[in-house]
Amino acid sequence: MSATALASVPRRVKICEMGPRDGLQNEAATVATPDKIRYVDLLSASGLAVIETTSFVKPNAIPQLTDAEAVMAGIDRKPGVTYLCLVPNMRGFERARAAGVDAIAVFTAASDSFTKRNINMTIAESLDAFREVVSAARAEAMWVRGYISTAFGCPYEGHVPVEAVVRVANALAEMGIDEISIGDTIGVGTPDRVVDVAEALQREMPVERLAMHFHDTRGTALANVLAALQMNVAIFDSASGGLGGCPYAPGASGNLATEDLLYMLHGMGIDTGVDLDRVREASRFISGVLQRAPVSRTFQALEAQAVRK
Ligand code: MG
Fold first, then answer.
1. Would you say the pTM of this structure is higher than 0.85?
2. Separation of 22 CA from ligand 1 center, angstroms?
3. Could you tell me the distance, in angstroms and rounded to a whole number, from the CA of residue 237 to the centre of ligand 1?
4. Which residues contact 213 (CB under 8 A, 6 or more apart)?
């Protein structure tokens, strides 16, 4: 890369694909199990290293995700790909283990009113609940990821102080969680806040342990990725096609689109190991199922180009 101001950003980035779980969970239409399996398999073929596949939440808690076992049994598990599954408690952990899951994620937030409404626990209660899950997972040599939602703002509390994010991240790190994903759940973050949070966290733990999860609700997701790259963060979450609207703002964009992220990173000469065209293929498939065009700008631009050719 010739741009000297950006010369020190990471040369390689890992992408955690959120489409099948975070993405579909926020879609109104129920997707049939075979379609979910096909979607995961198409994503697997793109070179993505981590695919958040499903969630072992209480059956019926989230109608879209009652088929976790069937999805895990049906997918073609490609060597080298991590099929991450959300696990809220020991019951979910036991189900995940029985389904042959080897990578789990636990989720909390940086604001109490969010965890209260989302999982009916305070942050402290959620951390207590995870301790057992994480130690059981570690005993099985599973890879464990932790999510901190509302790190840049809460739909109920508004501003979330950096110290609150650091406190929760430290608690997760102390449990031995391998990777911590800092989430902008409602898409309110701006690059200055990203730098502040990344800086504060790197005083506590190595940057290799940190991922960032941006939502494009207000159009700031890629600007935030760039700010995080400049802080040496090299792991980002995104969803193919930009799947998953914002649950707190009907009609608004949610997850940063994997295609948009790939376009920017590859344009900057950053290696991801992911084939953008293959991700598009997966997005094309799931958008056909959902009967809704992907919100990803890059997806739309490339599709329009293909038509014109
Ligand atoms: Mg998300």
1. yes
2. 6
3. 8
4. 18, 147, 181, 182, 183, 184, 236, 237, 255
